[in-house]
Amino acid sequence: MISGLYKGVFSSQSKKKAARQEIELRIDVDGERPMNIVSGDIYSLSGTKRKYVSSFKFGGAEKTKNSLNQILLAQDSGEFDPSSESFKKIEVSIPLNVSPFKATVKLLDRKSNELACLCRYKSKYFRTVHVEHDYEEDIVPFESYNTNDLLPSSHRRSHRLTIAGAYADAGIRLVITNKTQSRIPHPKRIPRQGAIWTDSELDKAMVKHFSQLSELPKWDVWLFSANEYAISNVKGLMLAHKRKQRVGCVVFQRATGWRFSQEKRMRLFIYVHELGHCFNLPHPWHKHKTNRTPMNNGSLLSWMNYPWGYFSKDKSQDFWKLFNFQFSDSELIHLRHAFRNDIIFGGNTTVDEE
User: Fold this and answer.
1) Predicted confidence band at 14 (pLDDT cuts at 50, 70, 90)?
2) Cβ–Cβ contacts within 10 Å for residue 270, how many?
3) Spatial CA neighbour of 226 closest among 275, 278, 183
């Protein structure tokens, strides 16, 4: 299996000076649910500084093997951010007798000029992000849920699933720092009574306790486990700060429950769902600004749907019978291959939720 993350550095000579650029290459052609896409991000390097330049994505990539025992990938129909006609084709070759894998990458423009470099295999995960997880006082830490505890089904993989495990299934590595040793008190807590959070209180808590909060886009996100929201029955929220969207989220224990299997299942679902919004994933009935059409409808079996709004007669009951604890194919493509600014926390918000 050659799919995963590769990294390399290429240099281009100009009349003034040599320019060094780093490429993060994502190859997705085999393994778990391959999307047959090669994508990447390019960064300029200057001393110790690293600055984002652009992203690209080539669909329809397929593996072929030549007489030299090399896997070859080639595609001449790509998308670019910012929109550009700089490169029309990508070629990737990977010798199979070298471990770990090394990919020779060539980006070619319309005049067949090429930008080439050697990228080394780094991880089976397409992206790695850091989650800083805080808990309110008296909130029960979430550990895992056994997907076969309720409504066992022959098509469902039976395993104990964590928040990180749900994203690992999609090819995304979550590095979660659980800060359970330093609990966050509610500013208006009454002893032995549940606290209710408002938007302003949540923002103040994030500012005070999220050590990586920044006005710049970062691969760090805040996750907060709280008791209850000012609007009852709200199970979770995505958090913004100073007009920067998608920098954190909160899950409310009172609305999800935490004692019984149904409640643990719902609690896991809302954690994965709200973090999905932080990755810029919409509900399936909302519109993308790029094409102004719904991605799908309420019948989508995905972490991003609402079980209680599932498009069937028995709604939640039918949803849980069929749900395989996975993202949809279109959501996988976004998580693995979205342009950097459309997925990084605090970056663009491409979803129109009017």
Assistant:
1) very low
2) 23
3) 183
Closest CA to 257 of 239, 279, 235, 282: 235
Fold of the domain spanning 4-123: Lipocalin (2.40.128)
Rounded distance between C-alpha atoms, residue 196 and residue 346, angstroms: 26
Residue written as token pair 């003034």? 16
Contact between 4 and 30 under an 8 Å Cβ cutoff? The reply is no
Predicted local distance difference test score (pLDDT) of residue 155: 63
CATH 3.40.390.10 domain range(s) in the chain:
127-352
Question: What is the structure's pLDDT at 107?
Answer: 87
Inter-residue contact 252 to 224 (CB < 8 Å): no
User: Of 41-45, 327-331, 332-336, 346-350, where does mean pLDDT reach its minimum?
Assistant: 346-350
Percentage of residues in the chain having pLDDT higher than 70: 89
Query: 331: closest CA among 277, 290, 293?
Result: 277
* Mean pLDDT, the chain, whole residue set: 87
315 in Cβ contact with 248 (< 8 Å): no
Q: Which amino acid is at 219?
A: W
Expressed in angstroms, the distance from the first to the final Cα of the chain is 42
In angstroms, the CA 167 to CA 304 distance is: 13
Q: Which amino acid is at 332?
A: L
Q: What is the pLDDT at residue 351?
A: 57
Please, where in the chain does CATH 2.40.128 lie? 4-123
What pTM value is reported for the model?
0.91
Distance (Å, whole) CA 40 – CA 168: 19
Alpha carbon distance 195, 192 (integer Å) = 9
CATH of domain 127-352: 3.40.390.10
Question: What pLDDT was estimated at residue 273?
Answer: 97
The whole-number pLDDT of residue 269 equals: 97
> Within a 13 Å sphere around the CA of 37, how many CA atoms are in the beta-carbon half?
22
What single string gives the DSSP state of each residue in 172-203?
EEEEEEEEEEEEEPPTT--TTS--EE-HHHHH
Amino acid at 7: K
Residue among 284, 288, 289 at smallest CA distance from 329: 284
